[in-house]
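Table S2 (continued). Query chain:
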Amino acid sequence: RFINLAGFGNLAGDMAFWDQNKKKIIPRFMPGSAQAIAESVNAACTTMSGWSPDSRSFFVATTSPRMNVDNGARLFTYAGNEITNSQPWNNENYHPDKLRAVQFIPAKFGTYPDRPQSPPPKGAIESSAAEEKPAAVSSKPAPKGRYVPPAARRAGTSNSLADRLRAEREAKSASSVGKVTAKPSVVGMSNAAKTRTPIGMAPPAAKDPNAKSKNALRKEKQRAAKAAAEAAAAEEERQKQAAAAAAPVDPEKRAKKIRKMLKQIQELKQKDPNTLNDDQKKKIESEQSLNDELSKLGL
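Corresponding output:
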């Protein structure tokens, strides 16, 4: 019936006692009076806890070796009031670290009846009933009318669409007072006549509609510079290849290189043709030309 929601272990040890049937926290009162207690119940440094077999008491204890200081046990009612006047033990006998375990003597299920909460003091019942009594409702119906938000409930204000449009027009007309507007141009007047040039200054040159922007000119220069650089690099590479072709070749070195290539071709021919790439296949196809070149060298 009763539940204790508590935060023990690494938490502060606060406890809240609930009635499971009513789904409410059990109220606490001062002993012998109707004054309610608002403070929360706290049991810091708790290592063991449990309900009594009749569900009317709850104990918390600080035991060793989990806590080696302030060993002892405390007893609470099902509402959270601590019982201090009828304990059959003395916690000072267990200081600082002599208490090992605490437990209620167990009882068979059904030994104790399922008792509800004890009725609260008479004064607490009257005060709680007065708090729960609803306020008197006037029989006079409230006057009907359109809803006005709190921001527009001041005297002389309204929040309708017509009033808002009227206020917006008035604000625009007030802001236009004293504002200088440009004189409209004469129909048929040329752009040159509209633009007044100081005496002695040449009129501004007309803009070419086909003229390119600065950004377009800059990109065009970048493309031209890139094309020139690529052409120079290609010419340099062509000259290097021509110089290499014109240089005399040592027959022995060339023959040695051809034999090495032929050896690689023989190794490739021993592999699975499906595993060869395009470069390796081209190398195998050049075997005949390499043999002809080697025979011409006569080495």
